[in-house]
């Protein structure tokens, strides 16, 4: 393994396990305050976020797996790490650039494979990224090459995700990408949080409060594809402008299905702003989400299996429907097919840059 100390952050890089004969690295970032985050090179994934003094697994608030096969997507069609090239759904897996139509893989099992979702069968969260220390020694850089034509996307895309632990408990993330021909990019982090403990399930999640201080969202159809409208949240089940109980809100959302929706948080260009707060009063824990991206996806793990048939998670936990929440910083869904949405187009010579921060208090 490799260890670096920088200011108040210690970085440990070690071998984790193997998947398809590839060595996966695990990186531990530890702050002087006792807060710890673990990351995997597989998918540039957040593996754990551990509050100091949390008894047993109660201090770890991120869902993950003890074994890499849990991430490989055949027995588990869900997403856990860095999603891309395009996060979320693309209608019929098709879009045009400069009049040329591209056909992506149609991997959306939830709609009988009509659409493309989160980057395809071998999405970015299924790739084993290269691992290196940041120049400053205060974090880690994961990098990957996505070849021209993979999952149907044009262009050789070089992407990197840098994680740094700042101010004791701020996990700062920077996603960067460049291409050698026109392509589309919308990276995100599909990490699942539960501040009551990663294995506390719906019992734990329903005790959370959520606030998303925005008045707009993009409504979608029964296939989770946006209609193209931007609507006001007022008077809808998507109004989180005031702190709202997830225990009350989730069972009513989308006719009892739960949340899977994009909010328009339109952070000012260049600036990173505070776009959501998740909190758990009993545990005294709060998670702030900061981003410079136009959208925020709220997803409440609706498609995870029901209780008793859950996924075998870290440390013997069972992961089931509504057992965690994803707060994904992103561009709007299917933006490549909507002129009025922020464009996901990336041309040679341009740099895609996406900054986000998960701040644990």
Gross morphology is globular
Which value, in Å, is the CA radius of gyration?
A: 19 Å
Q: Can you give the helix content as a percent range?
A: under 10%
Task: Give the strand line-up of the largest sheet.
Answer: 11-12-13-14-29-23-22-17-20
Largest beta-sheet details = 9 strands, antiparallel
The strand count comes to 29
Distance between the termini: 30 Å
Helix-strand makeup class: mainly beta
Q: Helix tally?
A: 2
What is the strand content?
A: 35-45%
Which properties best describe this structure?
single chain; 361 residues; mainly beta; nine-stranded antiparallel sheet; five-stranded antiparallel sheet; 2 helices
Describe the structure.
The chain is mainly beta. Helix content is 2%, strand content 40%. The protein has two helices and 29 strands. Strands 11-12-13-14-29-23-22-17-20 form a nine-stranded antiparallel sheet. The protein has a five-stranded antiparallel sheet with strand order 1-2-3-4-5, with no helix packed on it. It has a five-stranded antiparallel sheet with strand order 19-18-21-24-27, with no helix packed on it. The longest helix is centred in the middle third of the chain and has 5 residues, at 201-205. It is globular, with a radius of gyration of 19 Å.
């Amino acid at each position: 393994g490799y260890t670096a100390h920088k200011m108040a952050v210690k970085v440990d890089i070690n071998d984790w396990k193997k998947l398809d004969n590839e060595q996966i690295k695990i990186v531990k970032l530890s702050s002087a305050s006792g807060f710890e985050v673990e990351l995997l090179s597989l998918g540039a994934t957040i593996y754990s976020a551990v509050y100091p003094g949390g008894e047993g697994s109660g201090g770890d608030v991120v869902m993950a797996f003890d074994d890499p096969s849990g991430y490989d997507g055949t027995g588990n069609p869900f997403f856990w790490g860095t999603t891309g090239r395009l996060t979320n759904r693309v209608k019929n897996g098709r879009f045009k650039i400069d009049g040329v139509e591209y056909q992506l893989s149609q991997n959306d099992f939830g709609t009988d494979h009509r659409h493309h979702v989160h980057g395809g069968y071998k999405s970015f969260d299924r790739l084993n990224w290269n691992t290196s220390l940041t120049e400053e020694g205060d974090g880690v850089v994961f990098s990957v090459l996505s070849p021209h034509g993979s999952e149907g996307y044009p262009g050789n895309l070089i992407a990197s995700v840098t994680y740094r632990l700042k101010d004791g408990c701020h996990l700062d993330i920077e996603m960067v990408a460049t291409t050698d021909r026109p392509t589309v990019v919308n990276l995100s982090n599909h990490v699942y949080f539960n501040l009551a403990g990663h294995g506390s399930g719906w019992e734990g999640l329903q005790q959370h409060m959520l606030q998303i201080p925005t008045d707009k969202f993009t409504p979608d159809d029964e296939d989770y594809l946006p209609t193209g409208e931007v609507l006001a949240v007022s008077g809808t089940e998507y109004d989180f402008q005031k702190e709202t109980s997830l225990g009350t809100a989730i069972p009513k959302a989308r006719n009892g299905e739960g949340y899977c929706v994009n909010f328009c948080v339109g952070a000012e260009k260049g600036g990173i702003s505070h776009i959501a707060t998740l909190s758990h009063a009993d545990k005294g824990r709060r998670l702030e989400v900061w981003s410079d991206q136009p959208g925020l996806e709220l997803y409440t793990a609706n498609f995870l299996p029901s209780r008793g048939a859950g996924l075998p998670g870290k440390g013997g936990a069972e992961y089931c429907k509504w057992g965690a929440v994803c707060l994904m910083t992103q561009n709007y869904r299917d933006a490549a097919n909507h002129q009025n949405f922020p464009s996901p187009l990336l041309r040679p010579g341009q740099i895609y840059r996406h900054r986000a921060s998960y701040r644990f208090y």
